């Protein structure tokens, strides 16, 4: 259920855009926009902090208990077609007193593996087909410039402008309550301050966050395309051009809120693939070792549990094979027992090597690329290093006769001398030490931080992430050092490597 902000770089056939409205209609729109521009600008700050936004993290949440009960999410769902189910909504305190408690879905009775916890009818889920009013338009938009998340966020922002008139008002209020926070009450790093992002110094996740933020900014610039192409939005909000109605920061907050709760359904049409499901995430907690998923059935989206629950237990679902960097970026949490956690190491053959083309062909013959990404999985660091060694050895071959021997061989094995092996392993050792040195804290310091029960939650999840990364890097470093210790002669000076492969 990886819902990362996709950048569509693939080549698509020319788009046949729907016909534009008549010139007279466009003229009326332009005139109205000109007349109302000052009014919109004057009320802009007010709108941005009240009815225009899906979430606004700077305002204090003040909602009366009566108002809260009147628009109870589950009651609203039952009133609009949700059949009897086996879950209830419960609350736990948020770490920030300015925020209301975190709600979560819990078992209302004892459950056994295979029980249907709930089944939400399609009339109560939000899909692109519903948003855009046309499955063809949905496919056009999401296979080119815009992600599903951008379209869904834009729709909910428009719906929120209608206030209680919107059918989705109770659901939007629930999303506002959550404010893009996962079940650990921590927002995605996309909403962290620059100072808070420094918690991730040394981790490649920090660069991922910045890259994703730039992607959201690019999508914001394309929102007017959604408004124009989607007939339903154009007719309902003919004067509310998205980039004028919503400032970027509000769109970003809404995008992150949607990102934290969107469900990736399998075996459905493109226009229904990304879905917002009341009673789904973030009310459901994610867990990497869970196999229960929200699935599309005839006319509904249902959840079949994969384990027994006692009444009152939080219900958990699988978040897909995502590493902790994605879990933090998308949902604001880190899973200490994540079997899918991994680090990436990029290796590249040296393009200045006179034998580069021959080495590239040998690498391809053995399933590798001239720029190859190796994955280090938690607990399988030895296997990762073993996978990298043949590729690195290939980069160290310098004698043309040896290269011919490699070309004529049928496997990835290169002629290896103790000298060459030491050079390869030394490069790995230096690489792992350099990456570890890029973190401002040590593993021991991380352990001390995490033992503090009053540690800021954002600092905690960031420390959990970098600690797990360091453990994988340290394990890889130890594997390389152990292999060096097994070489027959420790006095051998490493071989010269004028065209050694590049590690990043």
TrEMBL record:
InterPro entries xref list: Rubisco_LSMT_subst-bd, Rubisco_LSMT_subst-bd_sf, SET_dom_sf, SETD3_SETD6_MTase
Example GO biological process: methylation
Organism: Dillenia turbinata
One family name in Pfam for this protein: Rubis-subs-bind
GO molecular function terms attached to this record: protein-lysine N-methyltransferase activity
Source domain of life: Eukaryota
Domain Rubisco LSMT substrate-binding intervals: 351-473
Gene3D superfamilies: Rubisco LSMT, substrate-binding domain, set domain protein methyltransferase, domain 1
Keyword annotations: Methyltransferase, S-adenosyl-L-methionine, Transferase
GO cellular component annotations of the record: chloroplast stroma
The protein's name: Rubisco LSMT, substrate-binding domain
């Amino acid at each position: 259920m990886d819902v990362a902000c996709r950048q569509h770089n693939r080549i698509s056939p020319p788009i046949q855009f729907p016909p534009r409205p008549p010139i007279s209609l466009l003229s009326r729109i332009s005139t109205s926009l000109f007349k109302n521009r000052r009014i919109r600008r004057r009320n802009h700050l007010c709108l941005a902090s009240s009815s225009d936004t899906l979430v606004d993290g700077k305002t204090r949440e003040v909602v009366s208990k009566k108002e809260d009960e009147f628009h109870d999410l589950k009651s609203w769902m039952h009133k609009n077609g949700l059949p009897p189910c086996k879950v209830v909504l419960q609350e736990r305190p948020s770490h920030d007193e300015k925020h209301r408690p975190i709600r979560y879905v819990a078992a209302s009775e004892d459950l056994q593996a295979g029980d249907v916890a709930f089944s939400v009818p399609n009339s109560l889920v939000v899909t692109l087909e519903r948003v855009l009013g046309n499955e063809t338009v949905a496919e056009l938009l999401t296979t080119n410039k815009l992600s599903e998340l951008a379209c869904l966020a834009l729709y909910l922002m428009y719906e929120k402008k209608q206030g209680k008139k919107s059918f989705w008002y109770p659901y939007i209020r629930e999303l506002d309550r959550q404010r893009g926070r996962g079940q650990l009450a921590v927002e995605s790093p996309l909403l962290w301050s620059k100072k808070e992002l420094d918690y991730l110094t040394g981790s490649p996740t920090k660069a991922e966050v910045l890259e994703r933020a730039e992607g959201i900014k690019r999508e914001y610039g394309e929102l007017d395309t959604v408004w124009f192409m989607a007939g339903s939005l154009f007719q309902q909000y003919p004067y509310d051009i998205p980039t004028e109605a919503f400032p970027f920061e509000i769109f970003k907050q809404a995008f992150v809120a949607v990102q934290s709760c969107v469900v990736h359904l399998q075996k459905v049409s493109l226009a229904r693939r990304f879905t917002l499901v009341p009673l789904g995430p973030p009310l459901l907690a994610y867990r990497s070792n869970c196999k229960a998923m929200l699935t599309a059935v005839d006319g509904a989206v249902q959840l079949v549990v994969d384990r027994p629950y006692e009444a009152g237990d939080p219900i958990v679902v699988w978040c897909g094979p995502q590493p902790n960097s994605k879990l933090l970026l998308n949902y604001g949490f880190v899973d200490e027992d994540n079997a899918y956690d991994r680090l990436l190491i990029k290796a590249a053959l040296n393009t200045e090597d006179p034998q580069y083309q021959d080495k590239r062909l040998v690498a391809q013959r053995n399933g590798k690329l001239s720029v190859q990404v190796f994955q280090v999985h938690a607990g399988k660091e030895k296997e990762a290093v073993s996978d990298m060694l043949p590729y690195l050895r290939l980069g160290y071959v310098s004698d043309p006769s040896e290269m011919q021997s490699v070309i004529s061989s049928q496997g990835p094995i290169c002629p290896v001398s103790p000298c060459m092996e030491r050079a390869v392993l030394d490069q790995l050792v230096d690489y792992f030490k350099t990456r570890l040195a890029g973190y401002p804290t040590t593993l021991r310091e991380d352990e001390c931080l995490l033992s503090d029960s009053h540690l800021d939650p954002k600092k905690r999840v960031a420390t959990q992430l970098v600690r797990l990364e360091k453990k994988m890097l340290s394990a890889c470093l130890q594997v390389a050092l152990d292999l060096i210790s097994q070489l027959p002669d420790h006095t051998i000076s490493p071989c010269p490597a004028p065209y050694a492969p590049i590690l990043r």
